[in-house]
Design a protein that fits this description.
alpha+beta; 3 domains; Lipocalin; single chain; Beta-lactamase; 26 strands; 21% helix; eight-stranded antiparallel β-barrel; eight-stranded antiparallel barrel
């Protein structure tokens, strides 16, 4: 955004003009639309339970600078040359040398990065400007990996030795980039070779054993399942957070689904008002747990489902809260007109009127409230949490309006 403000050009145009064109990166683009139109583009794949499946391209739109560049090993090799040659490509300065030195210097500690008995010469884990620094078998390594739906990558270089390594893989969450990178580095640097493939297999085996043991312990510790406190329909609606936008929970048959812009989850009841999400984009697989993410529904003073808490930001101490708004349904104007009129309760007259196809309620001494329909007869007060108006018909005519409030139900008779 800062670059766009300074240059008056989009991020995409800046990337093309300042890097792709001068570096001759003709096979590189900055959008999914361009990638789909390319004559030769990789397809992404996922691997779950030893089964490989195709994945859709992930169009990250507004987050494009965090991973929207689609490239090839040959093209990125040119980008590596810029960093190895102190900012120059074929004699032309692309980035200032002072910036190159600053960017590959340590500015933050990622973690301790302590050496192990197995690898005493591999240590340090620091961060520069978009680069991770480590000492790899006594050699200064600058690197950054990446992962997006269907693809994994690693770009690394050793400035002192003038060696650059690019590994691109069309599989989601793959270990291949780091494995291949290290294998090539051992050969190019002339260091003692490590059987990285054998090490990876050993780590995967231990991880599976630990996962199986954790599932066994988890099953023993699981509380006795208690039924949800509400009917499934009561959990549906639009859920909004000011910083994270809106998603919808819908009911299909005897199941609940959380529908986001890019993905969809099946919500499996766990206990009480807590549900576990499972990916439902390409079929539901409940063999994989939800990695500790749960939909924890909350109620208001009237007992209605008022929101849901999600621990989607691990760095925050508290879960994010999304406020529920029941999804409005369409109600015929003739029906709304039948509800219009004066209703009497305890010597007070409550007026219901129709304006521009919407229903409004006016209580003396209070502001006028808009009523939003969640069914043909039930309407929520849009600005008051836990307040609803229900219209009761008898003998084909509207006779009463029952006002549902946190402190009880109150019936007003239509005059």
């Amino acid at each position: 955004v800062i670059a766009e403000k300074i240059t008056g050009k989009s991020w995409e145009d800046n990337i093309r003009e300042r890097f792709l064109v001068p570096l001759g990166m003709n096979r590189t683009n900055v959008s999914i639309a361009e990638m789909k139109a390319a004559s030769n583009a990789a397809l992404g794949y996922d691997l779950k339970n030893d089964v490989i499946t195709r994945t859709d391209y992930y169009d990250i739109a507004a987050m494009a600078p965090a991973g929207a560049i689609n490239s090839s090993a040959n093209d990125i090799a040119n980008w590596m040359m810029v960093w190895i040659n102190k900012g120059k490509f074929k004699g032309r300065e692309i980035l200032p040398e002072a910036y190159i030195n600053e960017a590959m210097s340590s500015h933050a500690v990622v973690r301790g990065g302590l050496p192990s008995k197995e690898y005493p010469t591999t240590f340090m884990a620091n961060y520069g400007y978009g680069w991770m620094m480590a000492s790899y078998k006594g050699h200064y390594r600058v690197e950054h990996g990446g992962n997006i739906d269907g693809f994994s990558a690693s770009v690394a270089f050793f400035p002192a030795e003038e060696i650059g390594i690019v590994v691109l893989t069309n599989q989601n969450g793959s270990s291949i980039p780091s494995l291949v990178r290290n294998t090539i580095a051992d050969r190019m640097l002339g260091t003692k070779k490590t059987d990285w493939n054998a090490q990876l297999k050993d780590e995967l085996k231990k991880a599976k054993e630990a996962e199986a043991e954790a599932k066994k312990v988890k099953k023993q510790d699981d509380p006795v399942t208690k039924a949800p406190s509400h009917e499934l329909n009561d959990y549906t609606g639009l859920f909004t957070n000011p910083g994270y936008g809106t998603f919808e929970i819908v009911r299909k048959g005897d199941s609940l689904f959380a529908e986001f812009q890019q993905t969809r989850f099946y919500l499996k009841h766990k206990h009480y008002d807590i549900f576990a999400p499972y990916d439902a984009k390409d079929g539901i697989d409940t063999s994989e747990d939800s990695n500790g993410l749960f939909f924890n529904f909350a109620t208001n003073d009237g007992g209605d489902i008022s929101g849901v808490k999600l621990k989607v930001e691990q760095s925050l101490d508290h879960p994010l809260e999304f406020t529920r708004k029941p999804k409005a349904v369409a109600v015929d104007g003739d029906i709304l007109n039948e509800y219009a009129g004066n209703y009497e309760i305890a010597g007070m007259t409550v007026k219901v009127s129709v304006k521009n196809g919407k229903l409004y309620m006016f209580v003396p001494g209070q502001p006028e409230y808009e009523l939003s329909p969640t069914s043909k007869t039930m309407y929520v007060v849009t600005t008051l949490d836990g307040y609803k108006a229900e219209f009761i018909s008898k003998d084909g005519k509207v006779r009463e309006m029952v006002m549902h409030q946190p402190n009880g139900k109150f019936t007003a008779v239509k005059k």
